[in-house]
Design a protein that fits this description.
The complex is a heterodimer of chains A (about 550) and B (about 200).
Chain A (H helix, E strand, L loop, with lengths): L1 H25 L3 E4 L3 E2 L6 E2 L1 H12 L4 E2 L2 H10 L10 H10 L4 E12 L2 E11 L5 E10 L15 H12 L7 H4 L20 E7 L2 E2 L5 E7 L10 E6 L2 E4 L7 E6 L19 H5 L9 E10 L5 E11 L6 E5 L2 E3 L2 E4 L3 E7 L5 E9 L5 E8 L5 E3 L12 E11 L4 E10 L6 E8 L3 E8 L5 E9 L5 E7 L4 E5 L12 E8 L4 E6 L6 E3 L13 E2 L7
Parallel strand pairs in A: 1-4, 1-5, 2-5, 9-15, 18-24, 25-32
Antiparallel strand pairs in A: 2-3, 5-6, 6-7, 8-10, 10-13, 11-12, 11-14, 14-15, 16-19, 17-18, 19-22, 20-21, 20-23, 23-24, 25-26, 26-29, 27-28, 27-30, 30-31, 31-33
Chain B lengths: L1 H23 L7 E4 L9 E4 L3 E2 L6 H16 L3 E2 L2 H10 L10 H11 L3 E14 L4 E13 L5 E10 L15 H18 L8
Parallel strand pairs in B: 2-4, 2-5, 3-5
Antiparallel strand pairs in B: 1-7, 5-6, 6-7
Helix pairs in contact in B: 2-5
Classes of the chains: A mainly beta (about 550), B alpha/beta (about 200).
Amino acid sequence: MNLLKNSYIALIGTLLAILLWTSGAAYAINVAVFPVEDLSQDYNSVDEELRGFVVKVISKKGLEIIDSENIQAFMVAQHIRQLGHMQTKDIMSTRDAIKADLVVLATVCQKNDSPASLGMTIQLVRTSDGKTIWANSSALSQASEQRFLGVNTPETVDDLKPLLAEKLFAGWPADLDFTAGREMAGAQIAAVKETGYLEVDSVFFTPKVVRPGEKVKCTIRFKSPGKDTNTAKIFIKVGNRVHLASSDDGVYYNAAWVGSNAKQGSNVQVAMNSSDAKVLNQVWSGDVVDANYPVSLILDWPSGKLDESYLGAYVVDSRAPEIYFKLRGKIVNGMVSFRKELPISIFFKRNEPIKKWEFKVVNESGETVLRERGSSKPPSFKWRGQNGKNLRSESGIYTISIKVWDRAGNVGLAEEKVRLLSKKPEVTIDLTQSGEDEIIASLASLDDVPVRAWRMELWSEDSKLLKTYRGESLPVKFKLPEFDESIDKDKIACILKVTDDLGSKSFVKSENVFDQLITESEDETETQKPSEVSDDWYADF
Amino acid sequence: MRLSLLIKLSKLLICFLPVFMSGCVSSQKSPEIQQLTQLPRDICRIAVLPFLNNSEFPQGDVIFYRIFVAELNKNQEQLIVQEGDVRKIFRQMRISPKQSLNLEQMLVVADRLGVDAFVVGKIVIMEETKSRLVTEPKLAVDLRLLDAYSGKTILTTYHARNGEDYRKLMHFGLVNTITELSRLVSHEVLEIWKEKGLAKCTK
């Protein structure tokens, strides 16, 4: 009798144990608590202590916590370097890699010792589909937890932790067993969808901006594989034409589409987005449409499923940049002329990105005197008449040109002729004796640039200003005065200052102005230039 | 006689107590909101793009981002794209988190993430003024809800709050941490977006 009773008890006990074990196994939920990012410290800092705190709180809710070593090994294997957030594919990978049903991502938003404060956010993510099923954020501080008479007021971060746990984990989902668990009982199975994926790592268009009729190549690189990668066919769709992408290495997939090179007068064929299939299959004539053309990726799975995803766009550009420049120089005899420097401002009729430019100065013989190159939009220039070796160029007529290339290779050009006068204004002084006492001074400019102002001063040997003459144009003639007997005529100095219409100035200084005197009776009528052209500064009295 | 007078005075005081208490409560201004286009019928997937930080608060953009996303996820009315997926797209397209997206980039991101709307924003002010015992947080944010298909702005919201704004009586209700202030601001912005029509996904 006793034996039978004991057998019954043993049998019931065994059945109970089996029931409890299986029910436990059916509802065991594994949670991976990833390292906690601490935003109150440096970038990408980790707080192990607070991770331990989160683990402790979650483990009290009857969930199995995955060992941190497994999590770290997973992070290393998946190259996860950043904390606080994860990609969906990595979250879903934890389901197989470390048997995680849920992932917890927590962040410390603030942590201070004095006054004590602690703030955190937390997210609970389901690994079956990467969906966040619960999230919360909360913060506490010493000031907000003041107690009556200061008794039991939390004073440190550790004191705040249990209080924060209560607030932060309030609303923790109660139905985790059938929203996240592996073993789900009968009618409680939630609809969980596992989705495959193929991840695009990078997309390049070469080139991204083309002229009509040029080839565009699209290169796609896929990130490492989901299970269906190798069997999906990859197509690139441009408009209503689809191109099969090929790969030599299984990593980079390429597709290119071509328009024929357009010869002058012939029709132009371009890849374009049109709902009319006939347009792409025929030679198309007329104005080219400059526009952005969208490109899509099509994945043709063996199951028959088609996935289409927008990749980007390339640009067709047929218009040359319209460029012109303004020369800030004076017009002399119908041409912009300068002596010292010529400011050049560049303008575009239409604002567009420029890939490179070239500035060139060419002389009358066709030789390039100066060349400058650069990328992006050209700046303003100032040509000081120098050549490529930084030496002053000779006077003459030069052609200045600016050439620009846009991203598609269309060329814009502007050019203009200018005159460079390398020397300063040169003026001659001629003195002619007419009669016994009359001396006529003649001033004339040697080049055709009009003179704006001139001033001539006569000085005695002992630095006394004898006479001043002024004028606003040349040539000019005027009579010199009769000088006193006490003044030595052979030592009368002459200073001539001239400013021309180009703003250039010159000084002419002669120690003895009467050296240039020509009497009418002499056969010598050749004009003589002043003894020297001097840049000496002369103090005005 | 004196007792009845005392009772009458007490009753009078109780009647005026709410008036005194309301004087202790700062006026709470609502977020400034503008609706520029109609809300699409069903917004089911939302991507919150990295916020810009115009304040001096270190990592203020990430702090507010995480808190805002947590508040969005609380509602469980739309599916919020993981921050890791958003940052991955930005890396692939070589877009700096501090950069605003142009229309073409927005279309690519929308297509890759499969979203119906974006949330973009910037932290205008984020600071904590600390004294010996008390911290006074201040926060101002500028948030926009964009239609992912067209790039158009649907809702634009400017919201500014201090910790002081939530004081009820004495020190009760006073907010002392930037985290809690960010949570309250996020909640208020989302409440007002709901009022403007940001409804639960019906698909």
